[in-house]
Input
Amino acid sequence: MAINWFKYSAPTTFYGLAGKLIPWFAISSALLFAVGLYIGFVVAPVDYQQGEFYRIIFIHVPASILSMFLYLVMAGYAALGLIFNTRLSSMMATAIAPTGALFAFISLWTGALWGKPMWGAWWVWDARLTSELILLFLYLGFIALHASIDDPRRADRASALLAIVGSVNVPIIYFSVKWWNTLHQGSTIKFSGTSMHVAMQQAMFTVLVACWLYAIAVVLARVRSIILERERNTTWINELPEVRS
Amino acid sequence: MNGLDIWMREHTLAYVWLGSYAVAFLIFAVEIAMVRHKRKITLQQVRMMRDAEDEAGDAN
Output
């Protein structure tokens, strides 16, 4: 049976689908957080160099990956909205921005907490840290620009340009540890393999998936409010059970 | 070494938990609360608009 994916690109059908999916993503995320943290704090051994401090990795790395990946997804949706003038794409980009900004903040915050005992400083103007800070500012710029324009369609177009131009920062963050001499360590996990203990890898990937599911749940919940707000003058919104009650 | 440096080295797990995980989960909790609040407010606005339109329709 062929699924018509374009059907779900319309706010009318996506609204209901998102409402059904949110609890599944939220519950799975909570369970995976619990499992990931159990492996990370109980099963995974202590690092021989960093001691217990290394356990910040289980939130720091997933938050950093999510902050970069969400930006690319946001820029992708913004580009789709700009090129094809699809309403839902722009709404999704708007819904992703606050969650991406929070993950960028968590990445910087946990990085500072890890940096202090390891490097002796909360912050250094290192290429990786600075480019991640720029990512946070790009998210904040996107949110501020969108909020500053009253007409939602014009706001979508203006902020989409910012998101697309800003996406050049993501490869800079990723490759910064290779391109420049930085205090920040290089990638622990590479395509060629890793020296990490298997329990550490399991904990990190479990929390990464948990963060992903959390982000999807929150973005879907936020986009439902955006759909309600923007489509409030339509008949289908006024016929929704939650609106009629 | 200042007081915080000494404390973090004596209570490493507390530093890791309170500093990073508790803060991250607090941020998640605040975000969830904001999303729920936004939905509640948006629904109220949509209902108010619908009621206002119904009243305007009745008056005509």
Q: What stands out?
A: Chain A touches chain B at residues 37, 41, 51-53, 55-56, 59-60, 63, 98-99, 102, 105-106, 109-110, 113-114, 116-117, 214, 218, 221-222, 224-225, 228-229, 232-233, 237-238, 242-243 (CB under 8 Å).
